[in-house]
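To close the section, here is one more complete example, presented without commentary so you can practise reading it yourself. The ligand is glyoxylic acid.
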Amino acid sequence: MLCSGTGPRIAPEILRLLPSLRLVVTTSAGLNHIDLSECRRLGIAVANAGEVFSEDVADMAVGLLIDLLRKVSAADRYVRQGLWVSKGDYPLGSKLGGKQIGIVGLGSIGFLVAKRLEAFGCSILYNSRKKKDFVSYPFYTNICELAAKSDVLIICCGLNEQTQHMINREVLLALGKEGVIINIGRGAIIDEKELVQCLVQGEIGGAGLDVFENEPSVPKELFDLDNVVLSPHLAVFTPESFKALCDLLIGNLEAFFSDKPLLSPVMFE
Ligand SMILES: O=CC(=O)O
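Output:
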């Protein structure tokens, strides 16, 4: 049994050194650090954090979006720097209600983001690997078309070969000058260099980012932009979600060692 976070990659070289390995338990929801096809080939089961983080991550996506649209962090800096007194009122933000929200990845996190934003009066559109029968939101197979129809793009999918740099310059330009992007998935789903360029040149309206391509390094160009909200990959972390994660981890180990089905097995495709 091997326990992993999102840290060192569980690569074929590691798996080869552990010939008796039968189970990998990761404390993350994301699986991009585990070579799943090699685990499947070797008959190694994998369990992850399942849905224990989904609510907190969905809350964070909404938090970043409200912060960005209503300029909460930027206005906070303005007040602290004494600029309200010297320069007067701060520019107005824009309303959340009525926005068209394009969700990329309608898994458990994406679905909870959609539910939350519906309650704010937003319309939901989405892209996912497959159309979901349990929702009536418009489904877009083409990510550029989704971006063109959306005021806000929220990245909720996992990182894999298909999704790496899926949000490229073309998608960002389709989102447009007023469009904003929120990323609570993985940094490398967006081509970060292109994102930075689009933000610096005003080709998109703003970004709320919890994840980055080369964490903990964050492109310095973003530090001076008031239409960008930055967060150090902490959307999943609350004391409550940690407690739920510990219970799940223990539950998975107990299940494995008593030959019962895992509580949060990763289904190989
Ligand atoms: O980002 C954190 C996770 O995948 O759990």
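Once you have examined the tokens, check your reading against these statements. The beta strands are 2-4, 23-26, 45-47, 100-104, 123-127, 152-155, 180-183, 206-209, 228-230. The two ends are 22 Å apart (CA to CA).
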